[in-house]
Amino acid sequence: MDIRFIEWMPFNDNGWNKDRFLSYDEMFQRITSDECTLEEVSIQGLPAVDLQRLEDGPNDTTKWWKVPGHKGRVGFITSMTHHFCGSCNRLRITADGQLKVCLFGSAEVSLRDAMREGASDEDVGTIIWAALQKKHFALGGHGNAEGIKKANNNRPMTLIGG
Length: 162
Hints:
Layout: E1 3-6, H1 24-32, E2 36-38, E3 41-43, E4 52-53, E5 62-66, E6 73-77, E7 92-93, E8 98-100, E9 109-110, H2 111-116, H3 121-133, H4 145-151, H5 157-160
Parallel strand pairs: 1-6
Antiparallel strand pairs: 2-3, 4-5, 5-6, 7-8, 8-9
């Protein structure tokens, strides 16, 4: 069994609050320390978890670790503090036919409308290529989590399909 911990990401209507954010480094420290503290609950005496770093794939969004002697892996999706934007090769098409070249970008291109207007496969390919050329290097061009939240024009994750 693989377990992945995902850093909280600021999307519309998800109650983003930087004071409640738990970074990859903090998650890792809590998991590998002798004392596990979760909000007001403190569990003393838990053994530290020994994690060994695994090699990630070239376009992986997860930093993978292994617990020696176990088959599963522990992963961290670190999109806010150790973003992987430079190697991201993902595109999303929303349920209403909008192409998003970045999860955090507000720019969308309607493939649905182009196809309904009779765009050929070649035309659709050109539209996708043009959208990719406008992709920002990091975090949709917002700089950091607070910049993403301030932009406040990105769909909630439930409408993006992540």
